[in-house]
Fold this sequence. Notes:
- The chain is an alpha+beta fold.
- It has helices at residues 25-34, 79-82, 85-98, 164-168, 174-195, 201-206, and strands at 16-22, 42-48, 67-73, 107-109, 113-116, 119-131, 134-144, 214-219, 222-231, 237-241, 244-248, 252-255.
- Biotin is lined by residues 24-26, 48, 51-54, 57, 59, 68-70, 113, 123-125, 141-143.
Amino acid sequence: MKDLPLLQTKIIGRDLRYCESTGSTNRDCEKLANEGTPEGVVVIAETQTAGRGRQTREWFSPKGVNLYFSLLLRPDVELARAASLPLVAGLAVAEAVESLDAGLEPRIKWPNDILIGGRKVCGILCEMQAEAAHVRAIITGIGLNVNLREESLPEELHPRATSLFMETGRSFARTDVLAAVLNRFEPLYTRWQSEGLAPFLPAIRKRDLLYGTTISIDRLGDIVTGTADGIQEDGALRLQTTGGILPVYSGEAHIGTVPTIDV
Ligand code: BTN
């Protein structure tokens, strides 16, 4: 995975830092950010010994089968816009998966998961460094299950996780999948910096897993239930509740009225 022959980007991934094994590519990328490394560097690992998910969860990172990588970004945007970056990254992953011509229909689950057939294939963890109102760096970590086999999944992940292999019975060259994600991400990221999320809302809407469904949002233990009414320009999920539309800026969305355990 040291070379990406299909990479067509100008900046993103041109500096690719590969390692066999690391704790977390997000941590490595954070270190590079602190050292003043310019944006665009991508850290990728064959396995992570302390892969991190959102809300202090672990990210299952078996060796040599999936993609675990982190992008160092230094967007020229105000703090408020940064919240919508995970959706841009999610859209890039979804479009890249569609471009593999494997008949897959990935869905975006607000705020930053990609699911296929109701099971999670990709998780995104964006971590921001900021000074006053200025974004210094956003570490965008992406875990994408590529050639993972069902039998390698820990039992607790069985009903909730999937991979490109599990969905198609086909193996994919991880370098090509990575190049497809980065190729797709770079133009979206450039446009997002100047125009925000608005131009992407129709593409997100087309792939929005939650739209029109009854969901519960866990906001640090406070559960709000309603119908998902899409995503708005600032990245918030619009929740139709009995009291009207509630924009939700953070939290975990669970389909149904009772929160379930997430992955
Ligand atoms: C989630 O769904 O909870 C987010 C998962 C993010 C996992 C990726 S794998 C590469 C990068 N390094 C990490 O430690 N986490 C992210």
